[in-house]
Amino acid sequence: MKIKIANNSIKAIIFDMVGVLLFKKINYIPRSQREINAEKIEKFYNHLDDKKLLSDLKEKAGLTTKEISEALPYIPRKYEKFKELWDLLPILKKNYKLAVINNGNNLAEKYWKKKFGFNIFDAFVNSAKEKVKKPNPKIYLITCKKLNVKPKNCLFMDDTEENIIAAKRLKMKTILWKKGKKKEHLRKFISIIQS
Question: What pTM was computed for the model?
Fold first, then answer.
C-alpha cells in the first residue's frame, strides 16, 4: 500500500498493542492445558505488580509456579499481527516516532517481543514496568518523554474508550478502534496522516 505522508503537526504515533497492532486469531480454541492456563493468566493481566499477579494466579486461579511458567509463552500465540498496519510501519518510521503503550505485566513481555518483534518502535512502554497504566495520564506523558515529543504532536490509537478520552485531555489526536472495524480504522488512520 502506498501512502503519501503529509506535512502535518503529528510527530509521533502511539499504538495500543492488543486491539490495534494485534488481534486474537479467528476461531482460536485453547486445546492444551498450557493454553488453558494461559487463558486464566490473561484474565488477571492488568496488574501493575508482578508479585501480586503471581500471588493472585496461585490463590485465585489455582495455578502453581511451574504451571504459570509453562503457560506464559502460550499467551501471545493466540494473537496475530494486523498485517496491513504492520506493513505500513517501515514507511511511517521514516517520518514519525513510533511507540506502543501496553497495559500488561513483565512476566510475559519477552514472549510478546519474541513472537512479534517490536524493534521498529522507538519505545515500548509497559504499565507494569512504569507502575502506572492507561488511562492514567502519567503513562502517556512518560511515553512522550521517551519520544521527546509533546502530547499535542501525537496520534494515539486504542480500542478502549476511556484510554482515548484520557489521551484527548492531553490534546493528543486519537482514533478509537471499535471491535470488528479494523479496516475502517486503518483507512481513517491513513486519511489523518495524509491530511
Answer: 0.93
